[in-house]
Amino acid sequence: MRPEDPADFEALTETVSIVRIRDGEGERKETTLPDSVIREGRMQVYAENLLLADAPALLDGEAAFACACLFLGSAVAAADIGAVVPHIRASRTDPACVRVDVRLPPGTALAQPWENLDAIGEASLRRAGLAPLAPPSAGGAALPIEAVFKAVAALSDEPSLYRRTGGVHSAGLARPDGSLVLRFEDISRRSAVDKTIGAALIRGLISGAGESAGFLVSSGRICTEFVVRAAKARFSLIASVSAPTDRAVAMAESWGVTLCGFVRGKRMNIYTHEGRVLR
């Protein structure tokens, strides 16, 4: 989500009364005041009445989330997403849940076998017939280190739900020069990444075949789920202010994905395929 107006925050937050306690210089102060907390919701995606996803999520970016489910679950190819978008409909089933229904264009059907969003893993990449991403020495793209610093810094530069509530994660897509082209916040790290990938599909920024231009950025821990998504969408680099897990490092090494963690200011740790970062 990239809010265009502060009013966009209101639908996603709730105001509650809190007691704030501060200790300092031998004196404790207690103040009762209003505070903003995030509204926790769930998003369910159905395609032809088959459940593709049921995940915690902010109740926005429905089309982007649905497109990510279709593509990542191998139900619809990247090249066909544009034809599907007009057939996506969202409805509130209760105040805390959105149901997104996908009706495929006439004459088309879900590719088989498709996978539920929770089932997507490294085996999904093999079933899709994908090869590891090529290193720069074999024709893969390389990125300047300043672009990585710039993109991660930009992720937190704009007005955000995180600043308002402290209760969300951020993810985005950066161009090769480090400028952000997409940015989403969500209560789930995975949902933020999924909406970013879905929006990129809608914009035609992911071909599903050759390497996609740019790279993914995140405010959260890099886990295997992120690496699978990067490899499926053909993004060769993930950068985060946080750390990767051991399994994420191993998977990224196998699939040709560069992991940059603890990207803060002008510092970072490069865990895999360091040759992709020009410095």
Describe this structure in words.
The chain is α/β, with parallel strands linked by helices and 279 residues long. It has a domain at 136-278: Cytidine Deaminase, domain 2. It has helices at residues 7-10, 62-72, 81-84, 122-127, 145-155, 161-165, 189-202, 224-233, 246-255; strands at 13-24, 27-38, 42-47, 50-56, 88-94, 97-102, 143-144, 169-174, 180-186, 215-218, 237-240, 258-264, 267-270, 277-278. The strands form four sheets. Strands 9-8-10-11-12-13 form a six-stranded mixed β-sheet, sandwiched between helices. Strands 4-3-6-5 form a four-stranded mixed β-sheet, covered by helices on one side. A two-stranded antiparallel sheet has the order 1-2. Helix 7 runs parallel beside helix 8 (224-233). It is globular and about 65 Å long. The two termini are 32 Å apart.
Give the termini distance in whole angstroms.
32 Å
Low-confidence stretches: 1-6
| Mean pLDDT level | 93
Please report which band the strand proportion falls in: under 5%, 5-15%, 15-25%, 25-35%, 35-45% or over 45%: 25-35%
Identify the CATH architecture of the domain at 136-278.
Answer: 3-Layer(aba) Sandwich
Could you give me the name of the CATH homologous superfamily of the domain at 136-278?
Answer: Cytidine Deaminase, domain 2
Overall form: globular
Proportion of helical residues = 25-40%
**Count of individual helical segments:** 9
Strand order of the largest sheet: 9-8-10-11-12-13
Structural class by helix and strand composition: alpha/beta
Biggest sheet, open or closed, and with what strands and sense?
6 strands, mixed
- For the record, the CATH class of the domain at 136-278 is Alpha Beta
Q: What is the N-to-C order of secondary-structure elements (H for helix, E for strand)?
A: HEEEEHHEEHEHHEEHEHEHEEE
Radius of gyration: 20 Å
Number of E-type strands: 14
